[in-house]
Design brief:
about 220 residues; alpha/beta; TIM Barrel; binds 5-O-phosphono-D-xylulose; D-ribulose-phosphate 3-epimerase activity; EC 5.1.3.1; metal-binding; manganese; zinc
């Protein structure tokens, strides 16, 4: 298992003060910044693109930026986000005919490669590519919006993926995204996740440090 990572999703931040909000969660103890990219095509919502990622880098954000592409097609955005300073880039297998090629593209551009699985996406999408991945992102809500409730069947999926990862002996991260909070993070961790994406459970709280510390304490860090 990899060291625990708390990755606030800035989708839930105040967009009018995005730079300040990003620095605030990092100063409050966040390990990564999770960057949700929505295109109103693959998912029914529109968020932000590579220019915002680049602006955060120019504003002095040095922490890993974990880009989650909820877009189709993916190739152009992979190239643009790698250029804009993304550390990892994750896409959905349903968004492209060429999963293997796009994993390779991400790596060739110097980023870590991830695959995101929607709640109903079967695990056989990991066949033949598992050893090429740096990260698997389990969606515990249907993608498109923050503030939804955690879908309990995600716990079974996390356990099943953890078994697969452990069989490889590779340092593949298992990330969980959607409805993660200080109340359920312990059960998600026990199921086998090591990376926790949380939007409203952090940004809707008045004290980001208290919110992040509560999550870390719940997994005994
Ligand atoms: O990618 C998504 C939604 O599509 C997530 O990153 C959510 O934005 C997480 O938000 P909360 O469920 O934690 O509010």
């Amino acid at each position: 298992m990899q060291p625990i990572v708390i990755a606030p999703s800035i989708l839930a931040a105040n967009f009018a003060r995005l730079g300040e909000e990003t620095h605030n969660v990092l100063n409050a103890g966040a390990n990564w910044i999770h960057f949700d990219v929505m295109d109103n095509h693959f998912v029914p919502n529109l968020s932000f693109g590579p220019m915002i990622c680049e602006a955060l880098r120019k504003d002095g954000v040095t922490a890993p930026i974990d880009v989650h592409l909820m877009v189709s097609p993916v190739e152009t955005m992979i190239r643009d986000f790698a250029k804009a300073g993304a550390s990892s880039i994750t896409f959905h297998p349903e968004a492209t005919l060429h999963v293997d090629r796009n994993i390779q593209l991400i790596k060739d551009l110097g980023c870590q490669a991830g695959l995101a699985l929607n709640p109903a996406t079967p695990l056989n999408c990991l066949d033949y590519i598992l050893d090429k991945l740096d990260l698997i992102l389990v969606m515990s809500v249907n993608p498109g919006f923050g503030g939804q409730s955690f879908i309990p069947s995600a716990l079974t999926k996390i356990r099943d993926i953890r078994k697969k990862i452990n069989e490889t002996d590779l340092p593949i991260r298992l990330s969980v995204d959607g409805g993660v909070s200080e109340k359920n993070i312990a059960s998600i961790y026990e199921a086998g996740a090591d990376t926790f994406v949380a939007g409203s459970a952090i940004f809707a709280k008045p004290d980001y440090k208290h919110a992040i510390d509560s999550m870390k304490q719940a997994v005994s860090l």
